[in-house]
Fold this protein.
Amino acid sequence: MGDRTMTVQFPAIQPTEDGFVAPEWPVTATRSQSGVRSVRLWGDKPSDAGMTLTFANRTQAQAGLILKAYYDAKGIVNDVTFPAIVWNNLTDPNLLAYIARNNSLGMKWYWAGTPQGERVAGGSRVTVRCEFRAELRL
């Protein structure tokens, strides 16, 4: 049947807000009754980074393009790439290096859930909030 996954291009729309959660290493930790702590590292690469993008006061057509990217990716199934405009206004070299490092570690961005939207009061414009996870998948 073959591999049916594909990479979906996110639309070239600049977010008005964004948030990031750094990736974590796969670790389990336990503490014995005597207080001894044991930590086990299960891999050599961190994974499961997070990103939230908010697109405030956008046209319904732009909201439709975001929803199309979600449906094209089949929700959380296929990975998503982002055009450079998504990273506009991120000028700190450390943050940009963090984003680039996610890709160099082999992580890919996936939708973390359904895009959430609401109409802006008094008009026909929309605010859309999208959540993504960067994961290592086999």
